[in-house]
Write a structure and sequence with these properties.
The complex is a heterodimer of chains A (about 200) and B (about 475). Chain A has about 200 residues and is of the alpha/beta class. Chain A has eight helices and seven strands, in the order E-H-H-E-H-E-H-E-H-E-E-E-H-H-H. Chain B is α/β, with parallel strands linked by helices. In chain B, strand 9, helix 6 and strand 10 form a beta-alpha-beta unit. Classes of the chains: A alpha/beta (about 200), B alpha/beta (about 475). Chain B: This is 3-isopropylmalate dehydratase large subunit.
């Protein structure tokens, strides 16, 4: 995984709550068997509307998405994270994320930042008034900064460390191989097995 | 202090616990399907890793599979390639697979329980958010992303952040016309699509205890639509009776040992939940959704709400956008909404009891002119059972289409889709924009409401049928 320390870029205001992963990447894109090539599927239905915020020239090249509450609900599809990254987003800000989406984002180095809705509102106002305004998402200092705004955010220390170092979770877990083997040895025999009967 | 059911199952699976780190949990059962696994197998291949426990892993094909002409090559080359990728991966890594055409094939969350693999006190994961279904057995079951699928394939464990606990107690008795689907839709409307965020929900109380295993699966299935990490129901005699004799249920001395353990899987009297919600079953009625998220629902007897009635600005905006997308007007009676399509199936309501319930309503009646009704069993086993009971004949005699098993129109990855502007009454779990096909409009309903809606051509419950004139031709 690519490490995340700090990122500065322009931002897109997505004034919608309950953005489900079916909107982020519709199901027909899920037939692909790679982790790339999803950028054109990102918000595919909404992008057909010329007035949709991602279609506005002022927001081209933006890398921070500032969204309404309950972002990433519904399907567990990690393709939603890949689509956001393939399109160029490095971070998403919202007052609340769905659990599975959040887990998926952190495993891929897409930083999901939880800020109070009041701060999200201020960010929306700022970037709508000045689409060229830069927003900094700083994982080292755990801060989001923009003109007139400095907001602290929290992220559990272990997840932060893995993101800062760009660590591969599987390698970390495999260091505990002996403990996994010990657990396996003490599992009761009545536990289910998929071996055909 | 006592522990909740979820905490007990969690504690029994901790491989490693260390200060400042997430617990490392052992996974008892890992279910796979074609959509969320290819990139995970690719990751293993690139890192030179193997599947650690093929004996705890099972794959089935469901999301892309066609529900007609299954003996012919799949028409969509991209769907075909994805299924072929799963077959190749399972062969290469030694994973048991039930492909299209196999007698054990079906929707992953129907297959696990019917094989007896889903058992009380186990941890179950799958790259699919509706893995919460398996919580009906007192398992801690949750959906994961593809990176975690790869993690479980390689290590049979997952590092997991702690959860909060929520009790949803359903007091009293469900009225006769009210199903498990109505109950869970009403719960989601009450706590909201983010209400369960961070929580494992335990459903309990007299109305839950009276539910069959299949009804419990319907309830737990939709926990994710309330944003919950998982949903669970404590195992009891209903659970044990369902499991006994199934192909992968324990036998002999193992059965006795399992039963002894399973009986301990109850929330202690002095355990404390982080949040408690109480629902009065007697107040519930057939429930349908009017909007574009599963929390936007109301009793069938209600009217489409007026967005102006919401005090929260974000909810008001969501309601406005939903009515616009759904082509509905505030104040319109839900019973006046006409549909083009009725879908009975999915991991929520594609089991034999669901098909029986829909067939009982349809028997001797006809699907209304201009309405297409698809009945898609959740698995081949469910289909075979339905045929044995003659349910397929009831459906086809009424003018419904009897299809092969799969996820089908729940998410329209196969050709079963709504056309733009088409409206469905669907027994599935998500009414998101475009979920059943680009521009399609979805109303989530129970199997009984689906069948009654098919007969009248507008949202209806079975009680409306006796009051309506007998359809022509019956």
């Amino acid at each position: 995984m690519e490490a995340f320390t700090t990122h500065t870029g322009r931002a897109v205001p997505l004034r919608r709550g309950n953005v489900d992963t079916d909107q982020i990447i519709p199901a027909h894109w899920l037939k692909k068997v790679t982790r790339d090539g999803f950028e054109d599927g990102l918000f595919e239905a909404w992008r057909k509307d010329p007035g949709f915020v991602l279609n506005q020239s002022a927001h081209q090249g933006a890398t921070v998405l500032v969204a309404g509450p309950d972002f990433g609900t519904g399907s567990s599809r990690e393709h939603a994270v890949w689509a956001l990254q393939n399109y160029g987003f490095k971070a998403v800000v919202s007052s609340r994320f769905a659990d599975i989406f959040r887990g998926n984002s952190l495993k891929n180095g897409l930083l999901t930042v939880v800020l109070p809705q009041e701060t999200v509102d201020r960010l929306w106002e700022l970037i709508e008034a000045d689409p060229a305004a830069e927003v900094t998402v700083d994982l080292v200092e755990r801060q989001v900064r923009a003109e007139g705004i400095t907001a602290e955010f929290s992220l559990d220390e272990n997840a932060r460390w893995r993101l800062l170092e760009g660590l591969d979770d599987i390698s970390l877990t495999l260091r505990e191989e002996s403990e996994i083997a010990a657990f396996e040895a003490r599992r009761p025999s009545f536990k289910p097995s998929t071996v055909e009967v | 202090m006592g522990r909740t059911l979820a905490e007990k199952v969690w504690d029994d699976h901790v491989v490693r616990r260390a200060e400042g780190e997430p617990d490392l949990l052992f996974i008892d059962l890992h279910l796979l399907h074609e959509v969320t696994s290819p990139q995970a197998f690719d990751g293993l291949r690139k890192a030179g890793r193997t599947v650690r426990r093929t004996d705890l892993t099972l794959a089935t094909e469901d999301h892309n599979t066609p529900t007609v002409d299954i003996d012919k090559p799949i028409a969509d080359p991209v769907s075909r390639a994805q299924l072929e990728t799963l077959r190749k991966n399972c062969a290469e890594f030694g994973v048991r697979l039930h492909p299209l055409g196999d007698v054990e094939q079906g929707v992953v969350h129907v297959v696990g329980p019917q094989l007896g693999l889903t058992q009380p006190g186990t941890t179950v994961v799958c790259g699919d958010s509706h893995t919460s279904t398996h919580g009906a057995f007192g398992a801690l079951a949750f959906g994961i992303g593809t990176s975690q699928v790869e993690h479980v394939l390689a290590t049979q464990t997952l590092p997991l952040a702690p959860f909060k606990t929520m009790a949803i107690t359903v007091e009293g008795e469900l009225p006769e016309e009210v199903t498990a689907k109505d109950l869970i839709l009403a719960i989601i409307a009450r706590i909201g699509t983010g209400g369960g965020q961070g929580y494992v929900i335990e459903y309990r109380g007299p109305a839950i205890e009276k539910l069959s295993m299949e009804a419990r699966m319907t309830v737990c299935n939709m926990s994710i639509e309330a944003g919950a990490r998982a949903g669970m129901i404590a195992p009891d005699e209903t659970t044990f009776a369902y499991l006994e004799g199934r192909p992968h249920a324990p036998r002999g001395a193992d059965w006795d040992a399992a039963l002894e353990y399973w009986r301990t899987l109850r929330t202690d009297e002095d355990a404390v939940f982080d949040r408690e919600v109480v629902v009065d079953a007697a107040e519930l009625a057939p429930f349908v959704t009017w909007g574009t998220n599963p929390g936007q629902g109301a009793p069938l007897s209600a009217r489409v709400p007026d967005p102006a009635s919401y005090t929260d600005p974000s909810e008001r905006l969501a309601a406005e956008k939903a009515l616009e997308y759904m082509g509905l007007t505030a104040g319109q009676k839900l019973r006046d909404i006409a549909v083009d399509t009725v879908f009975v199936g999915s991991c929520t309501n594609g089991r034999i009891e669901d098909l029986r319930a829909a067939a009982a309503v349809l028997a001797g009646r006809s699907v209304a002119d201009g309405v297409r009704m698809l009945v898609v069993p959740g698995s081949v086993r469910v289909a075979l059972q339905a045929v044995e009971e003659g349910l397929d004949k009831v459906f086809t005699a009424a003018g419904a289409e009897w299809r092969h098993a799969g996820c089908s129109m729940c998410l329209g990855m196969n050709p079963d889709q709504l056309a733009p502007g088409e409206r469905s009454a669907s027994t599935s779990n998500r009414n998101f924009e475009g979920r059943q096909g680009k521009g399609g409009r979805t109303h989530l309903v129970s199997p009984q409401v689906a069948a009654a809606t098919a007969v009248l051509g507008r949202l209806a419950s079975p009680a409306d049928l006796s009051a309506a004139p007998t359809p022509a031709g019956v």
